[in-house]
Design brief:
By secondary structure, the chain is an all-alpha fold. The protein is about 70% helix and about 0% strand. It contains 14 helices and no strands. It has helices at about 10-15, 20-35, 40-55, 60-70, 75-90, 95-105, 105-115, 125-140, 145-155, 165-180, 180-195, 205-210, 210-215, 220-235. The relative contact order is 0.08.
């Protein structure tokens, strides 16, 4: 791994550091990306901690620390994302902040952030992500019709070849499932699977196992649900990812 592999935007963020320190921090950020991709969260955290020690006043470094905590758990992620946002003056982390609020059991706060004026300043991909988060927050509150409405026009109008299309289609399918529109949901799961050439969702797997798609939670005993949750966390310690369900 070489520092030159880091994106130019990273070095623009690190321009306040000395050349040697900037290259060293860039290597740590590259390592964080690799370990997060390989689900080695503890090793990613070690590199994030070192990067913060070396460049804790650089917004992107705090953002990377936030991403590590976002994958490991929610509470510390929120403070890191807020710090990075305050230091940078940029609102691009709003979708992650909103999803972290949702993960902390505050879907109302996620919706409030999704309705803020700053959302209008976001890039298209970030606005798509915010819509996915808000739809999920509506589902958390049992507002299934609103969850569908949040994504209906977006899902129907965006072309399938956009980087965010699969995730939007997938979230729309989940909203439809929650709103008891199973046949429509199957169509959008198929669209998500067709558009997902980056493995962002498990739409194809869900389509292959219809019984897995439409679990009636009313028929699922609470003890069984707790046991299943424990087993899942034992196999994969990551919490639910942002707008990912």
């Amino acid at each position: 791994m070489e520092a030159s592999q880091a994106d130019r935007s990273v070095f623009r963020e690190l321009r306040t550091l000395t050349k040697d320190n900037a290259e060293g921090v860039a290597l740590h950020l590259l390592a964080i990306e690799e370990f997060l991709e390989n689900e080695e969260l503890d090793r990613a955290q070690e590199h994030a901690q070192t990067a913060v020690r070396r460049a804790g006043r650089v917004p992107i470094v705090r953002e990377y620390m936030g991403l590590v905590h976002y994958r490991k758990g929610w509470s510390k992620a929120l403070s890191e994302f807020r710090t990075a946002r305050r230091m940078s003056g940029s609102h691009h982390l709003l979708p992650l902040i909103a999803d972290t609020e949702r993960g902390l059991g505050r879907p109302e706060k996620a919706i409030e952030l999704g309705q803020s004026r700053e959302v209008d300043t976001l890039a298209v991909a970030e606005r798509m992500e915010m819509a996915v988060v808000v739809s999920g927050a509506r589902r958390d509150l049992g507002q299934t019709g609103a969850a569908v409405q949040t994504l209906r026009e977006i899902a129907r109008t965006i072309p399938a070849n956009q980087p965010w299309s699969a995730r939007v289609y997938y979230a729309y399918a989940d909203a439809l499932i929650a709103d008891d529109k199973q046949e429509d949901a199957a169509e959008w799961l198929q669209r998500a699977a067709d558009a997902d050439d980056q493995g962002q969702t498990d739409a194809a797997e869900r389509l292959g196992d219809p019984a897995e798609e439409f679990i009636d939670l009313d028929d699922f005993a609470e003890d069984d649900f707790d046991a299943a949750e424990d087993n899942e966390r034992g196999a994969d310690e990551r919490p639910r990812e942002s707008g990912r369900d």
